[in-house]
Amino acid sequence: GAVVSQHPSRVICKSGTSVKIECRSLDFQATTMFWYRQFPKQSLMLMATSNEGSKATYEQGVEKDKFLINHASLTLSTLTVTSAHPEDSSFYICSASRETNEKLFFGSGTQLSVL
Amino acid sequence: AQSVTQLDSHVSVSEGTPVLLRCNYSSSYSPSLFWYVQHPNKGLQLLLKYTSAATLVKGINGFEAEFKKSETSFHLTKPSAHMSDAAEYFCVVRGGGADGLTFGKGTHLIIQP
To answer: Which residues are CB-neighbours of A45 under 8 A, at least 6 positions away?
Structure first.
């Protein structure tokens, strides 16, 4: 089956620094990738949808200047949390699909802790 | 460590008949469990979640799931399928500690008229 690799799985950083999270589709080309965020014991919140070669579409309330998403190739999307603060500490997970309407495949997630 | 297994990649039922989507999990901690649905052209939608309260959880659109610790299962059910239920369903587990989310591979639900 299709594999989505997300890296790193866990990151601890100081307040004010930037953190980049990578999401790779290993054995298929992902036209669309999604980035989600989850707070403890809450459901996933869709942050943004990225399509290869175009700007990401952000959900309402998500700061696009803070959460930079780049989908430069059909196998790689990155989420950069800029000037991270403790309130950005959360679990971030990506998903990818071959085509827009097709089944999603999920990365293993990244636990971000900002000190 | 944690894992989740959705036992069926595809389930096909007739409209008006019951739906059963199976999910088994393993977790080193008392887990939180979720069912999400993905409709075409849309992102994930949360159907229901279990977070150590009542073991029978009721969700949206008539779905419910029962947490059975002895069987390590969290099967999703609905008494009567509707055509609009056709979608991809994901079972998700989150253990305690530093574990993140683990998604099942999904079950594609097909509703026959």
So the answer is: A36, A37, A38, A39, A59
pLDDT, one tens digit for every residue, chain A (115 residues): 678 999 998 999 999 999 999 999 998 898 888 899 987 666 788 899 888 878 888 988 999 999 999 888 889 999 999 999 999 999 899 998 887 667 788 888 899 999 9
| Residue whose structure tokens are 């589709």 | A25
A34 contacts chain B (CB < 8 A):
yes
Q: Within an 8 Å CB–CB cutoff, is residue A10 touching chain B?
A: yes
Tell me which residue of A112, A105, A92, A113 sits closest to A3, measured CA to CA.
Answer: A105
CA distance B18 to chain A (A): 23
Single-letter code of the amino acid located at A47: M
**Amino acid sitting at position B57:** V
Q: Give A-chain residues touching B105 at CB under 8 angstroms.
A: 1
Cα separation of A69 and B32, whole Å? 29
Nearest to B26 by CA among B86, B97, B93, B80: B93
Nearest CA in chain A to B87: A103
Interface test with A, best of B44, B47, B89 (most A CBs within 10 A): B44
pLDDT in tens, B64-107: 999 999 999 999 999 999 999 999 999 998 876 555 678 888 99
B16 sits in which H/E element:
none
